TrEMBL record:
Lineage: Bacteria, Pseudomonadati, Pseudomonadota, Alphaproteobacteria, Hyphomicrobiales
Protein's organism: Alsobacter sp. KACC 23698
Ranges for domain GST C-terminal: 92-222
SUPFAM superfamilies in the cross-refs: GST C-terminal domain-like (SSF47616), Thioredoxin-like (SSF52833)
Any one cellular-component term (Gene Ontology): cytoplasm
Pfam families recorded: GST_C, GST_N
Protein's UniProt name: Maleylacetoacetate isomerase
Tree of life domain: Bacteria
Residues in GST N-terminal domain copies: 5-87
Length: 222
């Protein structure tokens, strides 16, 4: 680990996407100075942050003298290309495609449906109360993770982790979904392969350090 942070990371404690970047940085022995963007307070829509990312989304990663990189998967690939060890993608093209496919299924088909901006729209424009929002979360967490369970259980490339026996980008994306799901106290039944992989991830120091409840700004235990 370097003495001085190499990067500046715009983040929020509960953000699933920021969790992914924290894990990747820790796996590669890199550090980042975090700048909190309070999603609950709407700071992502403020003029200062919109100059960093006009989409108003986190994370955003900045290296001194370099451009801002947004979107968590783009950041993970950037870190993997600039700091190749340990690799987050397999060496073979088919393996890389499979890992990217799993990662995209989680980050493109599941995570976007439970973000703060979706909640804000549904509760202000869509007639959702808190109970309806929770049913919505359960629906899409369950849909995404049960589909992944079916895939992991059927494909021979699944090992101790989503792809083989080493941590890849797929595991980082899976853990980011499950960790935030647990913050909301939501459980998805009948996903034994996912649960076993998640347990291995949770035992890994890089994942443990990235856990939402260990971040600045997270609620403290009562």
């Amino acid at each position: 680990m370097t003495d001085e942070p190499t990067y500046e990371l715009f983040s929020f404690w509960r953000s699933s996407a920021t969790y992914r970047v924290r894990v990747a940085l820790a796996l590669k022995g890199l550090s980042a100075r975090e700048r909190n963007v309070d999603l609950d307070a709407g700071e992502q829509r403020g003029a200062d942050f919109l100059r960093v990312n006009p989409m108003g989304a986190i994370p955003a990663l900045v290296q001194a003298g370099g451009p801002t990189i947004t979107q968590s998967l783009a950041i993970l690939e950037y870190l993997d290309e600039t700091h190749p060890q340990p690799a987050l993608l397999p060496a073979d093209p088919v393996g890389r495609a499979r890992v990217r496919s799993i990662a995209a299924g989680l980050t493109s088909d599941t995570h976007p449906l439970i973000t703060p901006r979706i909640r804000r729209y549904l509760t202000t424009q869509g007639g959702f109360d808190d109970a309806a929002w929770r049913r919505w979360q359960i629906q899409w967490f369950s849909t995404g993770l049960q589909a992944l369970e079916a895939r992991l259980g059927a494909e021979a490339q699944t090992g101790a982790y989503c792809h083989g026996d080493s941590v890849t980008m797929a595991d980082i994306c899976l853990a980011s979904i499950v960790a935030v799901m647990r913050v909301f106290k939501i459980e998805v039944p009948d996903i034994p392969t996912v649960d076993a992989i998640m347990a291995r991830c949770e035992a890994h120091e890089a994942f443990a350090r990235a856990h939402p409840l260990r971040q600045a700004g997270a609620p403290r235990p009562a």
